[in-house]
Amino acid sequence: MNFKYLHCVPTYNNPQTIAEVVIDLLKESPNDILVVDDGSDRSVETLVNEALLKAELQNTRIFFLRLKENLGKGKALQKAFKWALDHSYTHVITSDADSQHPATEVMKVYKRSCAEPWSLVIGNRNMNTENVPGISHFGRKFSNFWVKYQTNTQVSDSQSGLRCYPLIHIQNFNFFTKRFDFEIEILIRLIWNGVNIAEEPVAVVYQKGSKRVSHFDKIWDNVRITLLNTLLIILSLLKEQTAPFKLALAFGVGIFVGCTPFYGLHILMCAALSFFLKLNFVGLFAGTQISMPPLVPLLVPAAIKLGEAFTHKDGAYSFFIGTTLLGALLGTLGFFVAWIFLSSRERTRRREEKALQWKGEQRGGRLGNHFLKLLMRTFGLRTCYICVAIFVVPYFYLFAPKARKASNEYWKTIEPQLSFAHRNIKILKHFYEYAVTLLDSVYLSIKGENAFALRSSGYEELKASLDKEKGLLMLTAHCGAWYLASRALKRHRFKHSIHIVHFREPRD
Protein backbone atom coordinates (compact mmCIF):
# COMPACT_ATOMS: atom_id res chain seq x y z
CA MET A 1 0.00 0.00 0.00
CA ASN A 2 1.27 3.46 -0.90
CA PHE A 3 1.18 6.08 1.84
CA LYS A 4 1.06 9.81 1.29
CA TYR A 5 2.44 11.99 4.08
CA LEU A 6 1.68 15.63 4.83
CA HIS A 7 3.54 17.90 7.24
CA CYS A 8 1.17 20.16 9.20
CA VAL A 9 2.35 23.26 11.05
CA PRO A 10 -0.45 25.02 12.97
CA THR A 11 0.51 28.57 13.86
CA TYR A 12 -0.90 31.59 15.63
CA ASN A 13 1.17 34.76 15.82
CA ASN A 14 4.62 33.19 15.42
CA PRO A 15 6.09 35.80 13.04
CA GLN A 16 9.69 35.32 14.20
CA THR A 17 9.90 31.58 13.66
CA ILE A 18 7.20 30.32 11.26
CA ALA A 19 9.11 31.04 8.03
CA GLU A 20 12.26 29.43 9.44
CA VAL A 21 10.29 26.31 10.44
CA VAL A 22 8.67 25.95 7.01
CA ILE A 23 11.91 26.49 5.06
CA ASP A 24 13.69 24.00 7.33
CA LEU A 25 11.03 21.39 6.57
CA LEU A 26 11.10 22.19 2.86
CA LYS A 27 14.83 21.48 2.74
CA GLU A 28 14.78 18.28 4.80
CA SER A 29 11.55 16.55 3.78
CA PRO A 30 10.24 15.27 0.43
CA ASN A 31 6.64 15.60 1.66
CA ASP A 32 4.10 18.35 1.12
CA ILE A 33 3.64 20.96 3.84
CA LEU A 34 0.39 22.49 5.07
CA VAL A 35 0.58 25.65 7.16
CA VAL A 36 -2.63 26.27 9.13
CA ASP A 37 -2.86 29.95 9.97
CA ASP A 38 -5.14 30.01 13.02
CA GLY A 39 -6.27 33.63 12.61
CA SER A 40 -2.85 35.28 13.01
CA ASP A 41 -2.72 39.08 13.04
CA ARG A 42 -0.56 39.07 9.90
CA SER A 43 -1.03 36.64 7.03
CA VAL A 44 1.39 33.75 7.47
CA GLU A 45 1.30 33.03 3.73
CA THR A 46 2.74 36.49 3.04
CA LEU A 47 5.48 36.02 5.65
CA VAL A 48 6.53 32.63 4.31
CA ASN A 49 6.44 33.66 0.65
CA GLU A 50 8.63 36.67 1.40
CA ALA A 51 11.16 34.42 3.15
CA LEU A 52 11.08 31.93 0.28
CA LEU A 53 11.71 34.70 -2.20
CA LYS A 54 14.76 35.86 -0.25
CA ALA A 55 16.07 32.30 0.00
CA GLU A 56 15.34 31.73 -3.71
CA LEU A 57 13.21 28.67 -2.98
CA GLN A 58 10.06 27.41 -4.71
CA ASN A 59 6.85 26.91 -2.75
CA THR A 60 5.26 24.27 -4.99
CA ARG A 61 5.05 21.84 -2.04
CA ILE A 62 3.70 24.35 0.48
CA PHE A 63 -0.03 24.92 1.01
CA PHE A 64 -1.78 27.42 3.25
CA LEU A 65 -5.06 27.18 5.11
CA ARG A 66 -6.07 30.42 6.81
CA LEU A 67 -8.81 30.50 9.43
CA LYS A 68 -10.69 33.77 9.74
CA GLU A 69 -10.42 33.82 13.53
CA ASN A 70 -8.36 32.12 16.19
CA LEU A 71 -10.13 28.82 17.01
CA GLY A 72 -7.41 27.08 19.01
CA LYS A 73 -4.72 24.53 18.21
CA GLY A 74 -7.09 21.56 18.45
CA LYS A 75 -9.55 23.06 15.98
CA ALA A 76 -6.70 24.01 13.63
CA LEU A 77 -5.47 20.40 13.63
CA GLN A 78 -9.00 19.12 12.98
CA LYS A 79 -9.24 21.45 9.96
CA ALA A 80 -5.87 20.12 8.79
CA PHE A 81 -7.03 16.50 9.10
CA LYS A 82 -10.11 17.25 6.99
CA TRP A 83 -8.02 19.09 4.38
CA ALA A 84 -5.58 16.16 4.24
CA LEU A 85 -8.39 13.61 3.78
CA ASP A 86 -9.97 15.73 1.06
CA HIS A 87 -6.61 15.74 -0.77
CA SER A 88 -5.95 11.98 -0.41
CA TYR A 89 -3.20 12.06 2.22
CA THR A 90 -2.93 9.03 4.51
CA HIS A 91 -0.77 10.48 7.31
CA VAL A 92 -0.35 13.89 8.92
CA ILE A 93 2.85 14.80 10.77
CA THR A 94 2.27 17.67 13.18
CA SER A 95 5.00 19.92 14.59
CA ASP A 96 4.98 23.27 16.37
CA ALA A 97 5.60 26.64 14.75
CA ASP A 98 7.92 27.95 17.48
CA SER A 99 10.97 26.03 16.08
CA GLN A 100 10.83 23.65 19.06
CA HIS A 101 11.05 20.69 16.65
CA PRO A 102 13.94 20.93 14.14
CA ALA A 103 13.20 19.35 10.77
CA THR A 104 15.87 16.69 11.33
CA GLU A 105 13.91 15.52 14.40
CA VAL A 106 10.62 15.66 12.50
CA MET A 107 12.15 13.33 9.92
CA LYS A 108 12.91 10.80 12.65
CA VAL A 109 9.19 10.58 13.39
CA TYR A 110 8.45 10.32 9.65
CA LYS A 111 10.90 7.44 9.20
CA ARG A 112 9.51 5.66 12.26
CA SER A 113 6.01 5.99 10.81
CA CYS A 114 7.19 4.55 7.49
CA ALA A 115 8.34 1.49 9.48
CA GLU A 116 5.11 1.36 11.56
CA PRO A 117 2.46 3.01 9.37
CA TRP A 118 -0.55 1.93 11.44
CA SER A 119 0.83 3.30 14.73
CA LEU A 120 0.46 6.75 16.21
CA VAL A 121 4.09 7.88 16.38
CA ILE A 122 4.96 10.42 19.09
CA GLY A 123 8.21 12.34 19.30
CA ASN A 124 9.47 11.61 22.82
CA ARG A 125 11.27 14.86 23.63
CA ASN A 126 14.57 14.92 25.50
CA MET A 127 13.72 17.54 28.12
CA ASN A 128 17.20 17.50 29.66
CA THR A 129 18.27 20.54 27.71
CA GLU A 130 18.64 24.23 28.40
CA ASN A 131 15.81 26.75 28.61
CA VAL A 132 13.16 24.10 29.43
CA PRO A 133 10.73 25.64 31.96
CA GLY A 134 10.19 23.71 35.17
CA ILE A 135 6.43 23.81 34.62
CA SER A 136 6.94 21.82 31.37
CA HIS A 137 8.65 18.98 33.28
CA PHE A 138 5.84 18.89 35.82
CA GLY A 139 3.12 19.13 33.15
CA ARG A 140 4.51 16.20 31.21
CA LYS A 141 4.76 13.95 34.30
CA PHE A 142 1.28 14.97 35.44
CA SER A 143 -0.22 14.26 32.01
CA ASN A 144 1.63 10.93 31.68
CA PHE A 145 0.25 9.80 35.04
CA TRP A 146 -3.37 10.36 34.00
CA VAL A 147 -2.88 8.77 30.59
CA LYS A 148 -1.54 5.66 32.32
CA TYR A 149 -4.47 5.71 34.77
CA GLN A 150 -7.08 6.09 32.02
CA THR A 151 -5.67 3.57 29.54
CA ASN A 152 -3.23 1.23 31.36
CA THR A 153 -0.73 2.30 28.69
CA GLN A 154 2.58 3.94 29.54
CA VAL A 155 3.29 6.96 27.33
CA SER A 156 6.54 8.80 28.00
CA ASP A 157 5.56 12.14 26.43
CA SER A 158 1.81 12.54 26.18
CA GLN A 159 2.11 16.32 25.70
CA SER A 160 4.42 16.23 22.69
CA GLY A 161 3.11 18.15 19.69
CA LEU A 162 5.42 16.25 17.33
CA ARG A 163 3.30 13.35 16.16
CA CYS A 164 2.40 11.36 13.07
CA TYR A 165 -1.29 10.50 12.81
CA PRO A 166 -2.53 7.68 10.52
CA LEU A 167 -5.73 9.26 9.23
CA ILE A 168 -7.50 5.93 8.77
CA HIS A 169 -7.94 5.74 12.55
CA ILE A 170 -9.40 9.21 12.99
CA GLN A 171 -11.22 10.00 9.76
CA ASN A 172 -14.65 9.51 11.35
CA PHE A 173 -13.96 10.87 14.84
CA ASN A 174 -16.11 13.67 16.20
CA PHE A 175 -14.02 15.69 18.65
CA PHE A 176 -15.31 17.79 21.53
CA THR A 177 -12.13 19.71 22.42
CA LYS A 178 -10.71 22.66 20.48
CA ARG A 179 -7.54 23.89 22.15
CA PHE A 180 -4.48 22.39 23.85
CA ASP A 181 -6.62 19.68 25.46
CA PHE A 182 -7.26 18.22 21.99
CA GLU A 183 -3.97 16.31 21.86
CA ILE A 184 -4.85 14.52 25.11
CA GLU A 185 -8.33 13.66 23.85
CA ILE A 186 -7.15 12.16 20.57
CA LEU A 187 -4.33 10.23 22.28
CA ILE A 188 -6.68 8.61 24.81
CA ARG A 189 -9.32 7.78 22.21
CA LEU A 190 -6.79 6.20 19.85
CA ILE A 191 -5.45 4.02 22.67
CA TRP A 192 -9.00 3.00 23.61
CA ASN A 193 -9.54 2.02 19.97
CA GLY A 194 -6.54 -0.31 20.11
CA VAL A 195 -4.12 1.82 18.10
CA ASN A 196 -0.48 1.07 18.89
CA ILE A 197 1.61 3.94 20.27
CA ALA A 198 5.20 4.19 19.04
CA GLU A 199 7.56 6.71 20.63
CA GLU A 200 10.62 8.01 18.84
CA PRO A 201 13.32 9.82 20.89
CA VAL A 202 13.87 13.35 19.54
CA ALA A 203 15.81 16.42 20.55
CA VAL A 204 13.94 19.62 21.35
CA VAL A 205 14.90 23.28 21.21
CA TYR A 206 13.44 25.87 23.59
CA GLN A 207 14.11 29.42 22.42
CA LYS A 208 15.22 32.16 24.77
CA GLY A 209 13.30 35.27 25.62
CA SER A 210 10.81 36.84 23.23
CA LYS A 211 11.61 34.45 20.37
CA ARG A 212 9.73 31.69 22.19
CA VAL A 213 6.03 32.42 21.81
CA SER A 214 3.56 30.31 23.78
CA HIS A 215 -0.20 30.79 23.71
CA PHE A 216 -0.89 28.31 26.50
CA ASP A 217 -3.13 30.00 29.07
CA LYS A 218 -1.92 28.75 32.45
CA ILE A 219 -5.36 29.22 34.00
CA TRP A 220 -8.02 28.43 31.41
CA ASP A 221 -6.10 25.81 29.44
CA ASN A 222 -5.28 24.00 32.66
CA VAL A 223 -8.97 24.19 33.62
CA ARG A 224 -9.93 22.67 30.24
CA ILE A 225 -7.36 19.88 30.58
CA THR A 226 -8.56 19.17 34.14
CA LEU A 227 -12.19 18.95 33.02
CA LEU A 228 -11.19 16.71 30.11
CA ASN A 229 -9.21 14.40 32.40
CA THR A 230 -12.16 14.22 34.79
CA LEU A 231 -14.46 13.16 31.96
CA LEU A 232 -11.92 10.66 30.63
CA ILE A 233 -11.42 9.17 34.10
CA ILE A 234 -15.19 8.67 34.45
CA LEU A 235 -15.35 7.02 31.02
CA SER A 236 -12.34 4.83 31.79
CA LEU A 237 -13.95 3.62 35.03
CA LEU A 238 -17.09 2.72 33.08
CA LYS A 239 -15.48 0.98 30.10
CA GLU A 240 -12.04 -0.21 31.23
CA GLN A 241 -10.96 -3.00 33.62
CA THR A 242 -13.25 -5.54 31.97
CA ALA A 243 -10.92 -8.55 31.99
CA PRO A 244 -12.63 -11.51 33.74
CA PHE A 245 -10.56 -11.28 36.95
CA LYS A 246 -10.88 -7.51 37.26
CA LEU A 247 -14.61 -7.47 36.50
CA ALA A 248 -15.27 -10.36 38.88
CA LEU A 249 -13.26 -8.59 41.58
CA ALA A 250 -15.34 -5.44 41.08
CA PHE A 251 -18.53 -7.50 41.36
CA GLY A 252 -17.33 -9.19 44.56
CA VAL A 253 -16.31 -5.88 46.15
CA GLY A 254 -19.68 -4.45 45.10
CA ILE A 255 -21.46 -7.27 46.94
CA PHE A 256 -19.39 -6.48 50.05
CA VAL A 257 -20.37 -2.79 49.78
CA GLY A 258 -24.03 -3.74 49.25
CA CYS A 259 -24.03 -5.75 52.47
CA THR A 260 -22.74 -2.86 54.59
CA PRO A 261 -25.38 -0.92 56.52
CA PHE A 262 -24.49 2.41 54.88
CA TYR A 263 -27.69 2.52 52.86
CA GLY A 264 -27.93 5.56 50.58
CA LEU A 265 -24.14 5.85 50.37
CA HIS A 266 -23.40 2.73 48.34
CA ILE A 267 -23.04 4.62 45.04
CA LEU A 268 -20.58 7.09 46.59
CA MET A 269 -18.63 4.21 48.10
CA CYS A 270 -18.53 2.50 44.70
CA ALA A 271 -17.28 5.69 43.04
CA ALA A 272 -14.49 6.07 45.61
CA LEU A 273 -13.43 2.41 45.41
CA SER A 274 -13.60 2.49 41.61
CA PHE A 275 -11.28 5.50 41.52
CA PHE A 276 -8.73 4.42 44.10
CA LEU A 277 -8.66 0.70 43.30
CA LYS A 278 -9.16 1.13 39.52
CA LEU A 279 -12.15 -1.20 39.45
CA ASN A 280 -14.92 -1.18 36.88
CA PHE A 281 -17.73 0.99 38.24
CA VAL A 282 -20.47 -0.96 36.45
CA GLY A 283 -19.26 -4.20 38.04
CA LEU A 284 -19.19 -2.57 41.47
CA PHE A 285 -22.67 -1.11 41.06
CA ALA A 286 -24.06 -4.45 39.87
CA GLY A 287 -22.71 -6.10 43.02
CA THR A 288 -24.38 -3.56 45.30
CA GLN A 289 -27.79 -4.57 43.98
CA ILE A 290 -27.72 -7.39 46.51
CA SER A 291 -29.08 -4.81 48.96
CA MET A 292 -32.24 -4.34 46.89
CA PRO A 293 -35.52 -6.21 47.43
CA PRO A 294 -36.26 -9.10 47.56
CA LEU A 295 -32.82 -10.00 48.95
CA VAL A 296 -32.43 -7.31 51.62
CA PRO A 297 -35.13 -8.79 53.94
CA LEU A 298 -33.06 -11.97 53.97
CA LEU A 299 -29.70 -10.24 54.46
CA VAL A 300 -30.61 -8.24 57.56
CA PRO A 301 -31.67 -11.17 59.79
CA ALA A 302 -28.77 -13.25 58.44
CA ALA A 303 -26.33 -10.46 59.40
CA ILE A 304 -27.91 -10.15 62.85
CA LYS A 305 -27.63 -13.90 63.50
CA LEU A 306 -24.04 -14.01 62.22
CA GLY A 307 -23.01 -11.00 64.31
CA GLU A 308 -24.59 -12.40 67.50
CA ALA A 309 -22.93 -15.76 66.93
CA PHE A 310 -19.54 -14.15 66.45
CA THR A 311 -19.67 -11.52 69.24
CA HIS A 312 -22.06 -13.28 71.62
CA LYS A 313 -23.82 -9.94 71.98
CA ASP A 314 -26.72 -8.14 70.37
CA GLY A 315 -27.19 -4.53 69.28
CA ALA A 316 -25.67 -2.21 66.65
CA TYR A 317 -22.09 -3.44 67.17
CA SER A 318 -22.95 -7.08 66.50
CA PHE A 319 -25.08 -6.05 63.51
CA PHE A 320 -22.14 -4.12 62.03
CA ILE A 321 -19.81 -7.09 62.57
CA GLY A 322 -22.45 -9.38 61.08
CA THR A 323 -22.85 -7.28 57.92
CA THR A 324 -19.06 -7.13 57.52
CA LEU A 325 -18.68 -10.91 57.83
CA LEU A 326 -21.69 -11.61 55.64
CA GLY A 327 -20.42 -9.14 53.01
CA ALA A 328 -16.97 -10.76 53.03
CA LEU A 329 -18.46 -14.25 52.63
CA LEU A 330 -20.97 -13.34 49.93
CA GLY A 331 -18.45 -11.06 48.18
CA THR A 332 -15.87 -13.85 48.03
CA LEU A 333 -18.48 -16.30 46.78
CA GLY A 334 -19.74 -13.78 44.21
CA PHE A 335 -16.18 -13.11 43.03
CA PHE A 336 -15.45 -16.80 42.38
CA VAL A 337 -18.80 -17.44 40.69
CA ALA A 338 -18.42 -14.37 38.48
CA TRP A 339 -14.78 -15.19 37.69
CA ILE A 340 -15.64 -18.75 36.64
CA PHE A 341 -18.55 -17.55 34.53
CA LEU A 342 -16.68 -14.66 32.88
CA SER A 343 -13.57 -16.76 32.26
CA SER A 344 -15.69 -19.43 30.63
CA ARG A 345 -17.33 -16.86 28.39
CA GLU A 346 -13.95 -15.37 27.49
CA ARG A 347 -12.54 -18.80 26.56
CA THR A 348 -15.61 -19.52 24.46
CA ARG A 349 -15.30 -16.18 22.70
CA ARG A 350 -11.63 -16.77 21.93
CA ARG A 351 -12.32 -20.28 20.63
CA GLU A 352 -15.04 -18.94 18.37
CA GLU A 353 -12.79 -16.16 17.07
CA LYS A 354 -9.95 -18.59 16.46
CA ALA A 355 -12.17 -21.13 14.73
CA LEU A 356 -14.10 -18.59 12.72
CA GLN A 357 -11.74 -15.67 12.13
CA TRP A 358 -14.85 -13.96 10.83
CA LYS A 359 -14.30 -11.83 7.73
CA GLY A 360 -17.72 -12.08 6.17
CA GLU A 361 -18.20 -15.84 6.49
CA GLN A 362 -21.29 -17.51 7.85
CA ARG A 363 -21.65 -17.39 11.58
CA GLY A 364 -24.08 -18.84 14.05
CA GLY A 365 -24.33 -22.06 16.01
CA ARG A 366 -25.23 -25.39 14.49
CA LEU A 367 -28.56 -25.45 16.32
CA GLY A 368 -29.54 -22.05 14.94
CA ASN A 369 -28.50 -22.93 11.39
CA HIS A 370 -30.38 -26.25 11.50
CA PHE A 371 -33.45 -24.45 12.83
CA LEU A 372 -33.37 -21.99 9.92
CA LYS A 373 -33.02 -24.85 7.44
CA LEU A 374 -35.98 -26.62 9.02
CA LEU A 375 -37.99 -23.41 8.91
CA MET A 376 -37.01 -22.95 5.26
CA ARG A 377 -38.07 -26.48 4.27
CA THR A 378 -41.35 -26.27 6.19
CA PHE A 379 -42.61 -22.72 5.70
CA GLY A 380 -40.53 -21.37 2.83
CA LEU A 381 -37.90 -18.70 2.31
CA ARG A 382 -40.00 -15.65 3.16
CA THR A 383 -40.68 -16.97 6.65
CA CYS A 384 -36.91 -17.23 7.15
CA TYR A 385 -36.54 -13.61 5.99
CA ILE A 386 -39.01 -12.51 8.68
CA CYS A 387 -37.29 -14.61 11.36
CA VAL A 388 -33.90 -13.19 10.44
CA ALA A 389 -35.21 -9.61 10.46
CA ILE A 390 -36.88 -9.96 13.88
CA PHE A 391 -34.37 -12.13 15.76
CA VAL A 392 -31.06 -12.76 14.00
CA VAL A 393 -30.19 -9.28 12.72
CA PRO A 394 -30.81 -7.52 16.08
CA TYR A 395 -28.77 -10.21 17.84
CA PHE A 396 -25.96 -9.83 15.30
CA TYR A 397 -26.09 -6.04 15.72
CA LEU A 398 -25.67 -6.34 19.49
CA PHE A 399 -23.08 -9.12 19.67
CA ALA A 400 -20.90 -8.57 16.59
CA PRO A 401 -19.13 -5.34 17.55
CA LYS A 402 -16.40 -5.66 14.92
CA ALA A 403 -18.89 -5.98 12.09
CA ARG A 404 -21.02 -3.17 13.51
CA LYS A 405 -18.00 -0.90 13.83
CA ALA A 406 -16.84 -1.67 10.28
CA SER A 407 -20.27 -0.91 8.86
CA ASN A 408 -20.48 2.24 10.96
CA GLU A 409 -17.12 3.45 9.61
CA TYR A 410 -18.27 2.69 6.06
CA TRP A 411 -21.44 4.77 6.31
CA LYS A 412 -19.64 7.61 8.09
CA THR A 413 -17.25 7.78 5.14
CA ILE A 414 -19.80 7.33 2.34
CA GLU A 415 -22.60 9.46 3.81
CA PRO A 416 -21.13 11.61 6.61
CA GLN A 417 -24.29 13.75 6.73
CA LEU A 418 -26.36 10.89 8.17
CA SER A 419 -27.58 11.25 11.73
CA PHE A 420 -26.78 8.61 14.33
CA ALA A 421 -30.25 7.07 14.02
CA HIS A 422 -30.24 6.98 10.20
CA ARG A 423 -26.71 5.54 10.13
CA ASN A 424 -27.67 2.70 12.45
CA ILE A 425 -30.78 1.97 10.38
CA LYS A 426 -28.43 1.64 7.39
CA ILE A 427 -26.26 -0.76 9.41
CA LEU A 428 -29.27 -2.94 10.27
CA LYS A 429 -30.33 -2.97 6.61
CA HIS A 430 -26.77 -3.91 5.63
CA PHE A 431 -26.81 -6.86 8.03
CA TYR A 432 -30.26 -7.89 6.77
CA GLU A 433 -29.18 -7.86 3.10
CA TYR A 434 -26.15 -9.95 3.94
CA ALA A 435 -28.29 -12.44 5.87
CA VAL A 436 -30.68 -12.66 2.90
CA THR A 437 -27.74 -13.48 0.61
CA LEU A 438 -26.73 -16.35 2.88
CA LEU A 439 -30.29 -17.63 3.12
CA ASP A 440 -30.62 -17.52 -0.65
CA SER A 441 -27.44 -19.59 -1.00
CA VAL A 442 -28.80 -22.23 1.38
CA TYR A 443 -32.20 -22.23 -0.34
CA LEU A 444 -30.50 -22.74 -3.71
CA SER A 445 -28.61 -25.74 -2.35
CA ILE A 446 -31.90 -27.23 -1.12
CA LYS A 447 -34.19 -26.48 -4.07
CA GLY A 448 -31.68 -26.63 -6.93
CA GLU A 449 -31.24 -24.39 -9.96
CA ASN A 450 -34.94 -23.61 -10.32
CA ALA A 451 -35.20 -22.10 -6.86
CA PHE A 452 -35.36 -18.54 -8.20
CA ALA A 453 -36.88 -16.89 -11.23
CA LEU A 454 -34.24 -15.13 -13.34
CA ARG A 455 -34.42 -11.60 -14.59
CA SER A 456 -31.71 -9.72 -16.45
CA SER A 457 -29.64 -7.44 -14.24
CA GLY A 458 -26.40 -6.61 -15.95
CA TYR A 459 -26.14 -10.01 -17.63
CA GLU A 460 -26.32 -8.62 -21.16
CA GLU A 461 -23.66 -5.98 -20.43
CA LEU A 462 -21.38 -8.61 -18.92
CA LYS A 463 -21.80 -10.94 -21.90
CA ALA A 464 -21.30 -8.13 -24.42
CA SER A 465 -18.08 -7.04 -22.75
CA LEU A 466 -16.65 -10.57 -22.71
CA ASP A 467 -17.76 -11.22 -26.30
CA LYS A 468 -15.48 -8.36 -27.35
CA GLU A 469 -12.57 -10.24 -25.75
CA LYS A 470 -12.02 -7.54 -23.20
CA GLY A 471 -10.61 -8.31 -19.78
CA LEU A 472 -12.99 -7.60 -16.94
CA LEU A 473 -12.14 -7.22 -13.27
CA MET A 474 -14.97 -7.16 -10.75
CA LEU A 475 -14.60 -6.62 -7.03
CA THR A 476 -17.37 -7.82 -4.73
CA ALA A 477 -17.85 -7.86 -1.00
CA HIS A 478 -19.35 -11.32 -0.47
CA CYS A 479 -18.82 -14.53 -2.43
CA GLY A 480 -22.32 -15.69 -1.54
CA ALA A 481 -23.80 -13.44 -4.24
CA TRP A 482 -21.39 -14.82 -6.83
CA TYR A 483 -22.33 -18.35 -5.86
CA LEU A 484 -25.90 -17.49 -6.80
CA ALA A 485 -24.80 -15.67 -9.93
CA SER A 486 -22.71 -18.59 -11.16
CA ARG A 487 -25.75 -20.89 -11.02
CA ALA A 488 -27.82 -18.32 -12.89
CA LEU A 489 -25.17 -17.88 -15.58
CA LYS A 490 -25.12 -21.61 -16.10
CA ARG A 491 -28.83 -21.56 -16.88
CA HIS A 492 -28.17 -18.78 -19.38
CA ARG A 493 -25.67 -21.11 -21.11
CA PHE A 494 -22.92 -18.67 -20.34
CA LYS A 495 -19.80 -19.94 -22.16
CA HIS A 496 -17.12 -17.63 -20.77
CA SER A 497 -14.92 -18.55 -17.82
CA ILE A 498 -14.98 -16.38 -14.73
CA HIS A 499 -12.22 -16.81 -12.18
CA ILE A 500 -13.23 -15.92 -8.64
CA VAL A 501 -10.48 -15.18 -6.13
CA HIS A 502 -11.90 -15.57 -2.64
CA PHE A 503 -9.67 -14.09 0.04
CA ARG A 504 -9.74 -15.75 3.44
CA GLU A 505 -7.32 -15.18 6.26
CA PRO A 506 -5.39 -18.37 7.12
CA ARG A 507 -6.63 -20.34 10.10
CA ASP A 508 -4.34 -21.65 12.79
The biggest beta sheet is recorded as: 7 strands, mixed
Strand order, sheet with most strands:
3-2-1-4-6-5-7
Quickly count the helices: 18
Strand content: 5-15%
Oligomer: single chain
- Indicate the percent of residues in helices: 55-70%
Task: Note the main attributes of this structure.
508 residues; alpha/beta; 8% strand
Question: How are the secondary structure elements laid out?
Answer:
Layout: E1 5-11, H1 18-28, E2 32-38, H2 44-55, E3 62-67, H3 73-86, E4 91-94, H4 103-115, E5 120-125, H5 134-151, E6 163-166, H6 182-192, E7 197-202, H7 220-239, H8 244-259, H9 266-277, H10 281-288, H11 296-311, H12 316-356, H13 366-379, H14 381-399, H15 401-414, H16 420-447, H17 459-467, H18 479-491
Parallel strand pairs: 1-2, 1-4, 2-3, 5-7
Antiparallel strand pairs: 4-6, 5-6
